[in-house]
Design brief:
The strands form 3 sheets. The protein has a 5-stranded antiparallel β-sheet. The chain has a two-stranded antiparallel ribbon with strand order 1-2. It has a two-stranded parallel sheet with strand order 3-4. The two termini are about 35 Å apart. The protein contains 7 helices and 9 strands, in the order E-E-H-H-E-H-E-H-E-E-H-E-H-E-E-H. It is an alpha+beta fold. Helix 1 packs across helix 2.
């Protein structure tokens, strides 16, 4: 099987390709590595979106030959349960994993969303809208109340990262990604952008976690 990615830019066609053996134990790892290559070389591409799209196409392709496929969603649904799969082909089944953004992003940020939400202490947070994949860069002194209010308005909103930080940090993040602002505090960010945010937040961390050094000016590329 060969994975193709064709891009049209300025009246030019660019083609990237990867040849894979479906029974190769490393097929999913190689697909992810290929997608990482694409995301690094074409700024408009998002690693997770491209990987999941490839996996969806692979799943469809395999099922054309009457094979049974299972994906990550099925394993999440039956976790802890006994279940039976009917296999129409004697050669067995193919596992075609996908990457859920909520779990992936939370893991990536080290599960900072689980940190204790101190009342009346300034915090910067990232929220993910599961319906659109848009991300809110916000700041609040009442994080628990803010999170519940937003989820009540739109249940598909989930917290993915949280840091005790002053408001100027939120302002700096908004400035860094101003070209990707959709409205208000909502942005269309890729995984590469989230890597930039993580690096930025790590660069300004101080022992108290409550402020940034006076006169701090991060040497972080703007987007």
């Amino acid at each position: 099987m060969i994975l193709f990615y064709v891009l049209a830019r300025n009246e030019k066609i660019f083609t990237e390709a990867l040849e894979l053996e479906l029974r190769d134990n490393d097929v999913n790892y190689l697909t992810l590595a290929f997608c990482r290559h694409l995301a690094q070389n074409y700024e408009h591409l998002d690693l997770l979106d491209v990987f999941n799209e490839f996996q969806h196409k692979v799943k469809t392709y395999i099922e054309m030959f009457n094979y049974r496929t299972v994906d990550t969603n099925l394993f999440e649904e039956v976790k802890g349960l006994d279940f039976l799969l009917m296999i129409p082909n004697e050669d067995g089944i193919f596992y075609v994993p996908t990457l859920g953004k909520l779990k992936f992003y939370r893991d990536f940020f080290g599960d900072t969303y689980k940190k204790e939400k101190h009342p009346d202490i300034e915090a910067v947070y990232l929220l993910l809208d599961l319906d659109s994949s848009n991300i809110k860069i916000g700041q609040s002194r009442k994080m628990i109340h803010r999170e519940r209010t937003l989820q009540a308005q739109k249940p598909s909103i989930e917290l993915i990262a949280y840091w005790i930080s002053p408001k100027q940090v939120e302002t700096q993040l908004h400035q860094m990604f101003k070209s990707k602002r959709l409205r208000g505090e909502w942005f269309k960010l890729s995984f590469a952008d989230l890597k930039t945010i993580k690096k930025f937040m790590e660069s300004i961390s101080v022992p108290t976690g409550l402020s940034v050094p006076a006169g701090f000016s991060p040497d972080t590329p703007t987007t």
